[in-house]
Protein 1
Amino acid sequence: MEEKTLADLRREELTHAPKNGYDRLTPEDEAAMKAYCEAYKKFLDQGKTERECVSYAVALAEAKGFQKLERGMALQPGDKVYRINRGKSLMLAVIGQKPLSEGVHIGAAHIDAPRLDLKPNPLYEDCELAFLKTHYYGGIKKYQWVTIPLELHGVIALTDGRVIHVSVGNNEGDPLFTIDDLLPHLGAEQAKKPMGEAIPGESLNILVGSRPFKDDKGSERVKLAILDLLNQKYGIVEEDLISAELEAVPAFRASDVGFDRSLIGAYGHDDRVCSYACLAGLLELNGIPAKTAVCMLADKEEIGSEGVTGMRSAAFDTFMSDLCDTQQVPLKACYEKSFCLSSDVCAAYDPNFPEVYEKRNSALVNYGMGFCKYTGSRGKGGASDASAEVVAYVRKLMNDAGVIWQMAELGKVDAGGGGTVAAYMAERDIDTLDAGVAVLSMHSPFETVGKLDCYMTFKGMKAVYEAE
Ligand code: MN
Ligand code: MN
C-alpha cells in the first residue's frame, strides 16, 4: 500500500467531501433499507390522498398500541396517542420520560400532494362525451397531466350526514380515466406556445364516458347515463357532487426504478416520503423516549398551509396544549424548548437540467437525508432560516446516529424557490430545521427518489425522536 502524504492526511482531516451513500452504507442498514422501502411503497399505494394516508397511518399506529387522545385523559411516559383532524391531518405522540416543560421533539411533514380536484359542478357532456371539470391543486406542470391514466379518490358528503368514500382505479379490474391532448398532426400551433400555456387549466377535463342512456330522446344522454351509474353505485344525485372532495390522481403503482432497483418511482413522494419517515420513526421507537416525540402529518402544504387542516391551523396547538394540560405545563413553555424537523422533500440535482442548480449546494440522489438551513425564494423570502446553533445540534445528532446526510439548497439563487411547513412551526417559537429526501421530477405525476435517501430520512427522524 502506498503511504499517505502529508497533503493526503491534511485533506482527509480538513475538507468536507461527502462520498456517495452506497460507499458508506453498512450491511445492516442495507438490509433494513430494503424492508423499509417495501413498506413505504405499500404506504404510497394505500394512500393516494391525504384522507387515505390518515386512515392507513392510523391503522399502522393502532397496531402498535396507539390510542385516540381524549381531552382530560391521564398520560404516563410511554403512552402512545393520536388525534385525527377532520380526516385529513394526523397528530401522534409518544409521551417521554422528561416533563413537557422541557420541550418535545417534532417530526412534521405533509400528506397532501399536487393533483386535480373536481370542481363543485364537475359533470358535463359535450359532443356526446362526458367529462369532469377540474381545478388543479398545488403547483403542477399541466402538460404532464394529459394522456396519463388517472384514478378518482375522495368523499361525497350527503345532507343526511353520511359520507360516501370513492376510490376508482386503485383496485384490480377498475376502470381508469384520462385527459385527452391534441394529436401532433394538428398540434402545430399548440407546439409554438410556451410550455406553461400549451395546456390551459380549463382544458384539464377528465373523460368519464361516451355511452348514451338507452331509449331516451332527450339531450345529454351520456351525462344522464353517467349519473345513472353513479346513482346505482353510490346512491347519489348530481347535486351531491357539490359537497364532494374528489381528487384525480395518477394511476401509477409505486415501483422500483432502474436495472439495479435503487430508485422508487411513484406519485406523491412529495411529501409522503417524509411523512412515512416521520410516522415510521415514531412507530419504531426503541423504548420510552427521553422527551415526548410528536409526529405531525399536515394537509394543505401545497397550497400554503392555510385552512383548518393546514399547518397554520390551531388544531396542532390544541393537540399540544391537551398534552401539556396533563402535566399542568403552559403550552408556550413547552414550545420554546421544543425542536422540529420539518421534513419535506428537496430538489435532487438533475444532470439533465444543470442550469437551474448550483452544484456545490444541491442535494444529490444517494447522498442521504438532505438538510436545508433555509428554503424560500428571491433572497430567502418566506424562509424559516434556521440558526447556526440548530444546524450544529442536528449535525451532531445525525453523525452520532450514523445517518448519511447532506446539506443543500433548493436550486440556484433567483432560479425560483419554494416553502415548507417550517415557517409555521418556527412562528410558534419552536426551533425548526428543514430536512428531507431529494426528489427528481418533483410535483410530476411520477416522481423519483433514491431508496438510500428514503431510509436515511427515516433513520434521521428516529434519531430526532430518540434524542436526549
Ligand atoms: Mn412538499
Ligand atoms: Mn410540494
Protein 2
Amino acid sequence: MAGMTLFQKILAREIPATIVYEDDDCFAIKDINPQAPVHVLVIPKTVIPRVGDAVPADQATLGALLLAAGKISTQLGVNATDKGFRLVINHGRDAGETVPHMHVHLLAGRDLTWPPG
Ligand code: 5GP
C-alpha cells in the first residue's frame, strides 16, 4: 500500500468508500465531506498528480474523465437544464487541493453560487 494515493487505496478496496461508478479508465466515489446534496469525485485510475501536470499522453484519460462525469450526472438525475451540476478541479494550495491524485468534483442538488468561493 505504501506509495499509493488515497484514491488508489480506495480503488483497491483498502479504504472504504461508496463507489458509484467504474469503467476501464476511471471511477467515482461519494465525497466523505459533501459540499452539496450531490458531491461525487470522478477519478482516473492512472494517477495524474494535478491537472497542471498533465501531458499530451494524458489526453485520452482527461477526455474519459469528462465523458464519465456526464454519464454519472445522468445516473444521478441531475443532467437536465432545469437542474444542472458543476465540475471543479482544484490545483494547488490557493484552490484548496488536498489529495494529489487529480480528480473532478461533481456538485449538484442546490443553487451553486457564482462566482465560486
Ligand atoms: P481536493 O481538495 O483535493 O480537490 O479534493 C479532495 C476531496 O477528497 C475532498 O473533497 C475530501 O472531502 C475528499 N476526501 C478526502 N478523504 C476522503 C476519503 O477518505 N474518502 C472519501 N470518499 N473522500 C475523501
